[in-house]
Design a protein that fits this description.
The strands form 4 sheets. This protein has a 7-stranded mixed beta barrel. A 6-stranded antiparallel beta sheet has the order 7-6-9-4-1-11, with no helix packed on it. A hairpin with a 2-residue loop joins strand 6 and strand 7. The longest helix is centred in the N-terminal third of the chain and has 10 residues. It has 289 residues and is mostly beta strands.
Length: 289
Amino acid sequence: MTDRALVVVRAGALTTVQDLGRPGHAHLGVPRSGALDGPAAALVNRLVGNTRDAAVLETTLNGCAVRPRSAVLVAVGGAPCPVTVDGRPVPWGASVPVPAGALLNVGTAVAGLRTYVAVSGAITVDPVLGSRSTDLLSGLGPPPLTDGAVLPLGTPTHLHTRVDAAPQPAPPAELVLRVAPGPRDDWFTREAVQTFTSRTYRVSSASNRIGLRTEGPALERAVPGELPSEGMVLGAVQVPPDGRPVVFLADHPTTGGYPVIAVVRTEDLAAAAQAVPGTPVRFLEVRRR
């Protein structure tokens, strides 16, 4: 039994292992996966001396609690939340030493949705297709955390970033997603295309790592029937039969038969990862670069 490990005491609503994902396998039907809020995951890794691509924990809404078997450095970022070590408050967004056997508790997010936990040496579960990410759609990678699970850790090799706190963007009060139209915007009426980029939607509670679902005005189709399945990319805005746009996130399917009205700029998707249900959403058309 190695002493470089984390024991999961409280798994939380949905906590998964995530890194930068496994791009380049869409032709095999394998989504990219990876941390939904990539900048937050990269920052907490930097704070504990890990490389940017190291695996972290991604929690959803109510955090998690873990107990390291050896002394480690941790950093918690992404959605702001209370953090304690053996019941004592410690800083969020900064490097924190956690003694062997102490309980690190990552509490419920006070804003936003997904919190990231980096541990010095990184989580070293076995990689699948070059990534340690949990993929909820394909089932690749480690399963979501359960109470009592043990996660192996690597050996720290880099100095951590010595700062009191690292600035992080606040979760969005309004989610503005810049979109390039197409490739199937011509499958919708002119009025529907105008509605899409002029009306306000809201984040649906049915959203998950696969897609951000919206509530709001339905988009009317100009072309009946369905498409043969075609390739789907990260950020594609697909419109299912109910007419409400769905923004594909990291665990999205690699093909789909509903028309894609637009594609969201990749750099806007981190904010989408932190948008809680009910958050207003606006789609802003921009020219292709």
